[in-house]
Each structure stands twice: as structure tokens, then as C-alpha cells.
Design brief:
This protein is mainly beta. The protein has one helix at residues 8-23; strands at 41-43, 53-55, 67-71, 78-87, 103-114, 125-130, 135-139, 160-170, 175-181, 193-195. The protein has an eight-stranded antiparallel β-sheet with strand order 3-4-5-8-7-6-9-10, with no helix packed on it. Strands 1-2 form a two-stranded antiparallel sheet.
Length: 196
């Protein structure tokens, strides 16, 4: 006659089976009461289908006359940038040179100093943001009544470049902020904005 199997081996395996089942479960769901991450501020070019660039939440715009430091993607690359003045409208020295009908120029006097440990590349891109959220790029002009346009190919450590940048905008549009960005600058950092 066969004797029944002893129940002890099955009981010894029970904790292992239970632990294995627990280990295969997914990670715990996050607490629904935890605060959500703050939404990113977006920049809209006003062009249908244009990509929007998120900007670090909580970043504050610099003001006319104040200095902003732009940190480069590479260690030791830093620009010190000052929006020295903003004029609306901007007028060419050459009376024959003017924006087309229905448009006007606004201009910003900018100062760039390389305060990092490496040479800095060519002048990046700038935009004037209007009250509706559209961005207007820099346009080429000659000398203004307020001064000459800015030009630089590169800035060595300690070098400075100063001059005016001009934006062509519709007559009825109000500009509220300016933006500077280049290939060296940290993307989406919130740096390089001025309220006007």
C-alpha cells in the first residue's frame, strides 16, 4: 500500500511562489495627489505647422538696460548680452530706404561680450515677438539714424560686438519681447529674452 506524499515540500515552496508572483507585477502607480509637472511655455512662429519650442518654466525676461548671460551647450561658452535700447519706429539714414507700405521697422541696440573660455561663433538669430505671439525675424538694413547694424563673424574671449538689429513688422502690431538664440546657446533654457 502507498503512503500519501508528505506536505512539507509543498509548504516550503509556497513563499518562493508568492515572492515570484509579486516580483513580476508592474511598478506601483504614481500617487494621484502628487503635483503635476508645470507646463512648458511654447514659442510660436505664427507659421502653420511650425514646430513649437518649449522654454524652461519660471524663466524671467531681462529688461532694457539689464545684462543677461547666455550659457553655451559646451562648457566654458558664455555670452554676456545687453539690450541697450529699443526704438519704434526705426528710420534709415538714407531717406530712399524704408519699409514697404503697411510695415514699419523697430530696432534694438545690442551688446555682446564673450565672457567664456572659448571663442564664440557667428551672430545667431533674433526675433521680435508681437502681442499675438508671432515672431518676426531680423531684416537687413543700412545705417539707421540711431546707429550702424551689428556685424560679427566670431568673438574671441573678452571681445565685444555692438550695433543695431532691425525687425520689419506690420504697422498695427505691438512688439512685447525680443529673443536671441544661436547654435552655441542651450536650447529651451529660457535665456535670451528681453521684455520691451
Amino acid at each position: 500500500m502507498r503512503q500519501p506524499a508528505h506536505p512539507l515540500p509543498v509548504l516550503a515552496l509556497l513563499p518562493v511562489l508568492l515572492f515570484g508572483a509579486t516580483a513580476c507585477q508592474g511598478a506601483a502607480e504614481p500617487d494621484a495627489r502628487a503635483p503635476a509637472a508645470p507646463p512648458a511655455v511654447v514659442v510660436d512662429d505664427g507659421v502653420p505647422g511650425a514646430a513649437r519650442a518649449p522654454v524652461r518654466p519660471g524663466a524671467k525676461d531681462a529688461r532694457v538696460g539689464s545684462t543677461a548671460r547666455l550659457h553655451g551647450r559646451q562648457f566654458g561658452r558664455h555670452l554676456q548680452v545687453v539690450l541697450r535700447a529699443f526704438v519704434d519706429p526705426a528710420i534709415s539714414v538714407d531717406k530712399k530706404f524704408a519699409p514697404p507700405a503697411g510695415k514699419r521697422w523697430v530696432a534694438a541696440s545690442m551688446s555682446f561680450v564673450n565672457v567664456g573660455g572659448a571663442s564664440y561663433g557667428a551672430l545667431g538669430r533674433m526675433w521680435a515677438h508681437d502681442g499675438a505671439g508671432r515672431r518676426h525675424p531680423v531684416v537687413k538694413t543700412g545705417e539707421l539714424t540711431t546707429g550702424k547694424p551689428i556685424v560679427f563673424d566670431s568673438l574671441e574671449v573678452g571681445e565685444r560686438a555692438e550695433g543695431w538689429v532691425v525687425f520689419e513688422i506690420p504697422e498695427s502690431v505691438r512688439i512685447v519681447r525680443l529673443q536671441y538664440q544661436d547654435a552655441n546657446a542651450q536650447a529651451n533654457s529660457g535665456e535670451g529674452f528681453w521684455a520691451v
